[in-house]
Amino acid sequence: MTETEILRVLETALLCADAPLSVADLRSLFEDTISGDDIRRHLAALQLDWQERGLELVQIASGWRFQSRPDMQRYLGRLNPEKPPRYSRAVLETLAIIAWRQPVTRGDIEDIRGVTVSAQIIRTLEDRGWIETLGYRDAPGRPALLGTTRRFLEDLGLRALDELPALDAEDPAEALGVLAFDAAEGPRAAQEADAVDDGDGAGEAAGADAAGPAPAQEAAACADALDPPAPRPRGPDE
């Protein structure tokens, strides 16, 4: 196959896929006759080809995908004006602590926040697919150890946890909010809408607690970035 033909196949597969594609997935398009290094080289070429367009090719935790550029969201948002629920500061603080300090127990989070963490907060984050139980601490009661999921990374447009910026110990929710604005895909459900009642009683009404702007639309379907929960992060080459 010529270089042009390979690029066309990769481009078509990525635009039509309903989920990110790993290098292994992309190699299977050519029956593994093209090496992983060559696939990455072609992906870099595609990124350059799309540099001046409304879509961009990015690598995230589970592979590669096309997505709309952040500056296109204000236009795409007009196609779907319905506003998703906005999460309270208590929920965002809890998520930030789990993301930066994982694995942590509910008791660890309470020690850091200085207030009780309701079961509803944990359930809200689990329902969004952002956190999961990684194991249990060898301590009385065997409390669950909580950590983030692959979907959390994907919604922030990150490939791995080590891409998270330094956590501001004074304001973990603010750190998460800054990341959401900077990333291609943030925890975008925290927006201008009625705050979700998390049962914590701390900061539900504050309008400044939103974590970021509305979700960028995925290239093929132009759908909300928050898809059904995904398993624990794995390398994009798996």
Radius of gyration computed on alpha carbons: 19 Å
CATH topology of the largest domain: Arc Repressor Mutant, subunit A
CATH architecture label name of the largest domain: Orthogonal Bundle
Let me know the average pLDDT. 76
What is the CATH class name of the largest domain? Answer: Mainly Alpha
**What percent strand?**
5-15%
What would your notes on this structure say?
This protein is of the alpha+beta class and 238 residues long. The protein has 2 domains: 3-78, Winged helix-like DNA-binding domain superfamily/Winged helix DNA-binding domain (Arc Repressor Mutant, subunit A); 89-209, Orthogonal Bundle (Arc Repressor Mutant, subunit A). It has helices at 3-16, 23-28, 36-49, 73-76, 89-101, 106-113, 119-127, 150-156, 172-182, and strands at residues 55-60, 63-68, 131-136, 144-148. The radius of gyration is 19 Å and the shape is elongated.
Supply database-style keywords.
36% helix, disordered C terminus, two-stranded antiparallel sheet, Arc Repressor Mutant, subunit A
Could you give a short description of this structure?
By secondary structure, the protein is an alpha+beta fold.
Q: What's the helix and strand layout?
A:
Layout: H1 3-16, H2 23-28, H3 36-49, E1 55-60, E2 63-68, H4 73-76, H5 89-101, H6 106-113, H7 119-127, E3 131-136, E4 144-148, H8 150-156, H9 172-182
Helix pairs in contact: 1-3, 5-7, 5-9
